[in-house]
Amino acid sequence: MKNSFKALSIIALTVLAVSSCTKDFVTVKHNSSEPQSEYYINESRMFEGLVAAYDPLHWYDYFYQYTALNMMSDIMSDDIYCGGSNDGDQPSLVKIHYFTSTPTEIVNVPWTTSYSGINRCCHVLENVDKVPGMSDDSKKLFKAEATALRAYYYTVLWKFYGNVPYYDKNLTTPYTAPQLKADEIYTKIVEDLEAVIAMNILPMKQSPDKYGRVTLAMVYMLYAEVVMYQNDNSRYNTALTYMQNIINSHSYSLVADYDGIWAETGEWGAESIWEINYINEGGVRDWGAPIAVGGSVYPVLIGIPGGVAGQYVDGWGFSPVAAKTYEMFGEGDVRRDGTIYNHLAVVGEYGNGINGGRWQSTGYFLKKYIARVNGNHGYKASDNLNYGNNQRVYRYAETLLNAAELSALLNQDGSKYLKEVRDIRNCKDTDTSIDGILEERHKEFVGEGKRYWDLVRTGKAASVLTAASRAFDGSQPIDWTPNKKYWPIPQSECDKDKNIVQNNY
Predict the structure, then answer these.
(1) Three-state secondary structure call for residue 273
(2) Contacting residues for 477 by C-beta, under 8 A, at least 6 apart
(3) Which residues of the chain have a pLDDT value below 70?
(4) CA distances (Å), 241 to each of 199, 236, 245, 327, 399, in order?
């Protein structure tokens, strides 16, 4: 469902613009000459600042690099290969896939985009109390949203880079902040989320005109994500309570049509807790304007070379799905064909030279986000950059599977949560152990950027993500080892601040 909140990003871009990449990687400057204290003179203008804090969420998929968060996570997993035209196409992605990144050959978009978001959140938090005429509830709501967004942006940095500079008030010259250890970043994230929850101002679910804005359910899900990734057993009870709060609210429910979740008509459906909005109608995103308002390039990036008449448009063949991933689903499990398009069934053998097959071609494509015919209807600029596929970040199925796993970790019976997911997906599995729950997550979230992080947090990455298990078509990945948990920090950032300690990757 498309809605008015998406269009508000246009306002945000008239207010704020990202500064050039010089000494400060996070400074945001007003296009207006007015200082902030003079610009934020009423609630309407403050709302523009809040919308601007949301806007970097749209940049993750492309900011002069192809960097959708789920794609980068997935190509490090055992489900999805890198793909593209050859192993020299998008070399930074290939190195992520191989676990061979270096400080000078690493994707830096998660870093720059996250800090831009953090900066904008801090602008809101530093100015909202000074705005005349705003009610206390409005101020509290804006603070809750900005704090939750800041926690999300720091979570991206924490998961990918671990030990990162941290600030919660915007920087002044020389624009540096202390680098905290990953455990300290985790503590800061949790403190922010706990503060938001204590404000008791966010709705469990937004009204349709506000889809995309932070909700209490989104905050609960982010809290559970970081607690489970940290293996923080002191907070498992709280995380489980939060999952149960979502369940008992009856604000969300599973949908029987798994395939339909990923259609345009499935956006913000009954199962959706939080999505990052993209728009196609009127989309003006272009190659020279990657942060302009519009759609996503990710659907074309992972699309079928040559396309499929009447269904899917010509794509670039990145992120081909492994055959073993297609084959892991049991008979009748609706997630298999709702997740993966089996092009082999259409063209027979699929490989180089067959219907445009490319590097690491498998014949299996990620149907969830693939570029569909007319998926960019109404675009104004680049056709490839303006597909309207929303990024599904949290779904109710994950709430139930989180509840099942947290229950098991606490030696409680959470099998009812697991059964609810399995029943509606027509899955016949019966294993209720931790491993059984993790395998259910594996099937449920293919292509959603969850699998890699699940393997890392459960200690399975070293045994699953081996060179032998991930090599394909002459590709040469190396084994995942614990020092691969955190990417190298971009060398350009280390050059700006000599106190930054590089990760040992």
Answers:
(1) strand
(2) 97, 98, 99, 100, 467, 470, 471
(3) 1-35, 37, 349-356
(4) 17, 9, 6, 35, 11
